[in-house]
Amino acid sequence: MRQIGLYSPAIHALIDNCPIGSETLITRMLHLLTESPSNSGQLTSFAPSPTPAGLLSIVMPPSSIVDRVRRLYVDRVHDVRCLIPVLVGLTKPEVVAALPRLVLLSDKVVKEVITRLLYASISTVHAPNPLVGKPGHENQQPPVGPPLLGPMTPQELLVAIHLLEFVRQPASGQLGSEVQTPMVDIRSVLRACRVCLSERRLFTQDRLSVAIEQLVEQPVLPTLMMRTIMQALAMHPRLTGYIINVLSRLIRRQGAVRYG
């Protein structure tokens, strides 16, 4: 499979003309082609290659593949798992729209999704093109220039996860269905937050302060905001002064709401 690569015309044609019932197989193929080999050269369930800085480097799929998978998802599949191989190539609004369904998947899948998004914001690599230089593929050229970074920064992803509790199920249109139920339960939001903050190297003091600032400015404070503030303080004790200031602002805000 890796001898074909994501730039192969055959892969593009297969996605364009996806036979009915083969969507899962194609998604699995794309998973394999967007995984990076481990140091041993063997594939793991998700093992991006380490960069010189010690951070994981995520494979950025070519835009032609991203466009085709996007169309496949919108027109036929409607299973959010098919987006995971090309997730880092989507736009930020597309990722935010997919997150409510992604965080409801299994622990293993949620970890993969968050890992891809977090590390793609720091470093990505071009998908390898094994066809370059092969007879009959003279038109194949290696990618030029540095690859794009992922659609969301770590702090943007952390904030987006906190706000999932406010996402509501689409209205059914039936009589009496005006009250929409939450789409994501708070346990799933908590699980995603834990996975996110477990990547301590990525959540620097500056990134966490930016995330906290965005959470505090929300019209309705997320349920897990205070938990995240305490975690941020445990990770970066130098945030003490900033967090005291944030808490003071919250107290004044609550007082204004109560007595205003």
Automatic annotation (TrEMBL):
So which residues are the signal peptide here? none
Q: Which domain of life is it from?
A: Eukaryota
**Positions of the Symplekin C-terminal domain:** 79-254
Name of one Pfam family that matches: Symplekin_C
Gene Ontology CC, one term: mRNA cleavage and polyadenylation specificity factor complex
Protein name, UniProt field: Symplekin C-terminal domain-containing protein
Q: Organism source for this protein? A: Protopolystoma xenopodis
Its lineage reads: Eukaryota, Metazoa, Spiralia, Lophotrochozoa, Platyhelminthes
